[in-house]
Amino acid sequence: MTATATHRHADGHLPDPAGGPAYRAPVQDILLALDVAGLERVLALAAYAHVDRSTLVSALEEFGRFAAEVIAPTDRIGDLDGAHLDPEPRRVTTPAEFHTAYRMYVDGGWGTLPFPTRFGGGAFPSAVALALQEMFASANLALSLNPVLTQGAIEALLRWGDADQQERYLPHLLTGRWSGTMNLTEADAGSDLGAIRTTARHDGALGWRVSGTKQFITWGDHDLAENIVHLVLARTPDAPAGTKGLSLFVVPRRILSSSGLPGAENAVRCTHVEEKLGLHGSPTCTMVFDEAYGELVGPRHGGMRAMFTMMNAARLSIGVQGPAVAERAYQQAHAYATGRVQGRVRDGEGSRPARLVDHLDVKRMLLLMRTGTQASRALLFATALFGDLATHGDHPDDRERARQFADLLTPVAKAWSTDLGFASASLGVQVLGGAGYIEETGMPQRLRDARIGPIYEGTNGIQALDLVTRKLGRDGGRWMRELLHEMGGSPPPPRSPTDPLSAAYRIYDRSLGCLASTTEWMLAKLDASPDDAIAGAGAYLELVGVTVGTWLLLRRAAFAVDSGVDQRARCIEEAEFFAAEVAAGAQGLAQTIVVGAGHLDMAVPPSA
Amino acid sequence: MTATATHRHADGHLPDPAGGPAYRAPVQDILLALDVAGLERVLALAAYAHVDRSTLVSALEEFGRFAAEVIAPTDRIGDLDGAHLDPEPRRVTTPAEFHTAYRMYVDGGWGTLPFPTRFGGGAFPSAVALALQEMFASANLALSLNPVLTQGAIEALLRWGDADQQERYLPHLLTGRWSGTMNLTEADAGSDLGAIRTTARHDGALGWRVSGTKQFITWGDHDLAENIVHLVLARTPDAPAGTKGLSLFVVPRRILSSSGLPGAENAVRCTHVEEKLGLHGSPTCTMVFDEAYGELVGPRHGGMRAMFTMMNAARLSIGVQGPAVAERAYQQAHAYATGRVQGRVRDGEGSRPARLVDHLDVKRMLLLMRTGTQASRALLFATALFGDLATHGDHPDDRERARQFADLLTPVAKAWSTDLGFASASLGVQVLGGAGYIEETGMPQRLRDARIGPIYEGTNGIQALDLVTRKLGRDGGRWMRELLHEMGGSPPPPRSPTDPLSAAYRIYDRSLGCLASTTEWMLAKLDASPDDAIAGAGAYLELVGVTVGTWLLLRRAAFAVDSGVDQRARCIEEAEFFAAEVAAGAQGLAQTIVVGAGHLDMAVPPSA
Fold first, then answer.
1. Could you please report the per-residue DSSP string of A52-119?
2. Do A586 and B584 touch (CB under 8 A)?
3. Three-state SS for B282?
4. Which of A326, A581, B342, B359 is most buried, taking the most CB atoms under 10 A from its CB?
5. CA angle at residue B444 from B443 to B450, to 5 degrees?
6. Of residues B457, B542, B574, B576, which has the active-site annotation?
7. Residue B608 gets which letter from DSSP?
8. Nearest to A23, CA basis, from A58, A62, A66
């Protein structure tokens, strides 16, 4: 059995550092993506008057150094050692290196960045916080999930908590001294939350008593924070069946004393930590609540809306794991393919020794990873900036339009980016060949860690349903048409045939045409025969991602040329590549969309 | 973080057996695929006069039971316990359960099936042996690699060994009492074998002395067989540089005594066993040869040709791991999705409780797994049967044509099938949702095991190069044109518009048209600007796979209807689904092929 070799000596050692080369934060690429996505317009809003660009750039650079130098070295340790449930005292423990990195994250105040100043936040655009999350996730995806969950809890309390709850919990959650969780899933109640059986009964002045078992709770227990603030979906005794009967409760691991400090242990414990394909450093817990003290958050039976607040906040944070893991995989694959001589390539009539990267197929794989990373990063930041505009835009019309664009693009940003992230990790394995299959090189961890992205925070199938059945048809399809109009107008026509991007623009125009016609097809089917629309939802989401991604890379190239940044030559090349290699397939996607559901009108065959 | 839940109780136990449901051998599907691929025509050849169909069916059924009942239960044990290098005596050990299963495999004589009777073989068609390999690989992919390597050694000795070598080694290799290896790869010499540095010097009457270090040697050492027969590529002192200077040597782990029994230990040892992403039960060894006794196999400096004999034999065996792992993943995903109630689906104006499989997206994923498995299985068996015809066909013209078709399709069967196998394993993870990410369910092992397929035995990028630069242009493109002609003629025209497959035939015809036009484009570019052809090689290989796969599924539907087999209704449905869901994208593939290499004319950007 032959495979591409790595350098390995007879004693079994690899000369490269185990786990792959160090991570370098791509601050310039991130900044450019923010600029292309409309950072300047957002910074001009009154709400961000206190944020100047140079502060923002410094924050990105400083966090980039922190991610590279402090967080990234903990990544492989977390994969190898993992998080464990110690029997006595029953507590989940994490590697010592996590403690150091997390403490520096808390002390640096990085978690507070996008939140209101009245709770100790920095009130930065959420897109900037998302950029930080990308770097954190590149450096250590498992550890980065802890602040993502905390952020979800913060969003829920900001939107639904009363003043007293906000006062008691938020300042500590913002810094990360306390962390947060989302306790939704139960056995038989995953994507289908209506089946939740956890109960909460009112206990007079003592608040509520929550009982039940939750599973797949990310960072449900651990030893990094002084307290853990669980947000728990449960059913009150008088509640109607299904999702309409769910209420949200805050259940602290340690009950706050009258002075607001963590006091007595609450009746909540972790009984099991999953052995997972990846994310070994992130404890995925089964949590048992046994008459645990809790407080109602928001209106009784208003749990689903509160839950959506948490999940919407988290979808972009999960989406950004796509470019995050792809960036890290690219850095390693790039180093390997440029540093290694293998075989020969044609050179005129003869041949010459070649680096791995000189083989067209390897180059193609690297460029797919590279451009997919840039495109999905741009989509994520653009979506986040629409969200910032939706909250803080100057005019109600601006806010409404931005909200609608953010709503449309959020499921695409989550699903398309995490699919690309996994695909890029797999390409990274392929570039390394046989070495990519060896755990010691670190590349398998990329693949294993990336595989959860398309599953959690609503599977990518559910994201496609959300796009098509909830977002697309809103106001008769108005918002996707408006987005298409904007996408048709913004690369400045007419374009000269000598423009290096003229071929890319042609492919883009065709892709945009495919998206426009399938959008109308979808809208017609949503009324007439919804199953046809639903059957094509996944391919439609992909077509939106590909077309918007190409649009953003073309805008990036135009922006780079106009502003004369150093990367302008390669921005042009990357847009050209992405159009030719990815957007050229748009017609195939369109054809699979309009096939409809007829071919699904069959029973799934039994297995043997 | 929410995710589709699995049933798990507070104590952390899953009610399903750990590692997923038992494997059931799909003997009827396999037999149908063999029939569609042309088994009857091959069995009619004089060389197979001794093989009657009922014997063959019994063999498939009996091996299917053995695979399901004896081999499959060892799969998860191998994943968890793995193979280990014990320091004293320096030997690789495998789980006890492997010993039992392997001994029964040897005692059953299964390994001898396709080989000549004069060495104790059964002289069955190789396609039948491939069908057995599929079931073995479904049951335990890691263990199944052992016989695959042995088969490579047998092929090399059959073709290149002298009578004495054949006499001494082959009878034992055929049964599997001795196993074989392929020692090719070295550090810095993986896909590029010209860089091999292992040496062999002649030692007079004592034969040759082989010295060097090989790595990534599959089943390079283990405790299952009485002897291990290494086939080693090495360089003699007088050898020219590059691949032209390589010779092949047989180096037994234990040197044969004068009576032919394994005697003294040879100077070859395993110094390292890799920690891999998957295939934990298959030891991947670094092997050190230190003046080890060896015998020249075939002509001096003829090593590359001999190596290709081994690799060609192995390519279909590796390819069949694609449907093998996809079949097993399908069985588990099917059981999960049909056994589990989750959420609701639309039902007229209202909705009703649904099984997971009732959600269109889940159904689509299952059917993609299912039909991809059937299509790639059909392609593999068809390619193997062309190989049998090439060897034993009645007329030289038949043999030549079959040889050319087998040569064309072998890289497609290897690459397309292993890509589909990995994609199916990933879909299996997705169908299970959060549970798919939990090792205990067994699904992550499918994904981890499947990831090596696209890498070993020549990466899938190398297969695409082989197809385009070595096979396609042969005789001016004659053979692909003949294959296209055959593919255009064999679904019997004219087809009635009331034919349930009329839509599938339309899509197929369009796919065939795309393949015909891109074939001509490729042939023109191979002369004029080879880089354009090479840049599109991967997409071209995929288009060949998709189109041939659709052709075979349509033939399968027609065959099933004509012969009235039980599965005929679902053969029609599966062909319809595959055409609509997969072949409908052919035009997109065609467009990415004819983009050429212009967009690759750039330096790969540095990482951050």
1. -HHHHHHHHHHHHHHIIIIIGGGHHHHHHH--EEETTTTEEE--HHHHHHHHHHHHTTGGGTTS-GGG
2. no
3. coil
4. A326
5. 95
6. B457
7. -
8. A66
Catalytic residue among A97, A457, A573, A576: A457
The 10s digit of each residue's pLDDT in A11-63 is 444 545 566 778 999 999 999 999 999 999 999 999 999 999 999 999 999 99
What's the rounded Cα separation, in Å, for the pair B415 and B434?
29
Determine whether the interchain pair B437/A589 forms a contact, defined as Cβ–Cβ distance below 8 Å. no
Q: Is A346 exposed, middle or buried (0-12, 13-18, 19+ CB in 10 A)?
A: middle
Contact A343 B191 (CB under 8 A): yes
Number of inter-chain CB pairs under 8 A, A vs B: 379
Nearest of B209, B212, B292, B295 to residue B249 by alpha carbon: B295
Task: Choose the closest CB to B1 out of A218, A537, A604.
Answer: A218
pLDDT of residue A18: 61
Q: How far apart are CA A564 and CA A418, in angstroms?
A: 31
Q: Check: CB of residue A370 under 8 Å from CB of residue A581.
A: no
End-to-end CA distance of chain B: 31
Which of B8, B429, B602 lies at the smallest CB-CB distance from A215? B8
Q: Tell me, which fold does domain B463-600 have in CATH? A: Butyryl-CoA Dehydrogenase, subunit A; domain 3 (1.20.140)
For B591-607, write each residue's pLDDT tens digit: 999 989 988 988 888 87
Residues A88-100 have pLDDT tens digits of 778 999 999 999 9
How many CA within 13 A on the CB side of residue A536? Answer: 30
Residue that the structure tokens 């509160």 belong to: A306
B278 contacts A605? CB cut-off 8 A: no
8 Å CB contact between B147 and B115: no
Helices (H) and strands (E) in chain B, counts: 20, 13
- The predicted pLDDT at position B492 comes to 52
Q: In degrees rounded to 5, what are phi and psi of residue A220? A: -60, -35
**Chain-chain contact of B437 with A452 (C-beta, under 8 angstroms):** yes
Fold of A473-601: Butyryl-CoA Dehydrogenase, subunit A; domain 3 (1.20.140)
Pairing of strands B227-235, B178-183: parallel
Among the partner residues A5, A535, A607, nearest to B334 by beta-carbon distance = A607
pLDDT (0 to 100) of residue B494? 53
Closest residue on chain A to B345 (Cα) = A531
pLDDT digits (tens, 9 = 90+) for B271-306: 999 999 999 999 999 999 999 999 999 999 999 988
Q: Which three-class secondary structure state does DSSP give residue A580?
A: helix
B232-276 tens-digit pLDDT: 999 999 899 988 999 999 999 999 999 999 999 999 999 999 999
- Altogether, the residues listed in chain B come to a count of 608
CB A360 within 8 A of CB B598: no
Structure tokens, A152: 């979800």
Distance CA B552, CA B546 (A): 10
Judge if ipTM > 0.90.
yes
Which residues, 6 or more positions from B455, have their beta carbon under 8 angstroms from its beta carbon? A3, A4, A429, A430, A433, A434, A436, A437
Q: Is B274 a catalytic residue?
A: no
The H-assigned helical ranges of A435-536 are 443-450, 460-465, 478-489, 502-528, 530-535
Which chain A residue shows the shortest CA-CA distance from B446?
A277
CA A31/CA A81 separation, integer angstroms? 34
* E strands, B465-519, in order: none
Provide long-range contacts, Cβ within 8 A and 24+ apart, for B347-352.
none
pLDDT of residue B551: 96
What are the DSSP calls for A337-380, one per residue? HHS-EEEEEEETTEEEEEEGGGSHHHHHHHHHHHHHHHHHHHHH
Find the distance separating the first CA and the last CA of chain A, reported in whole Å: 31
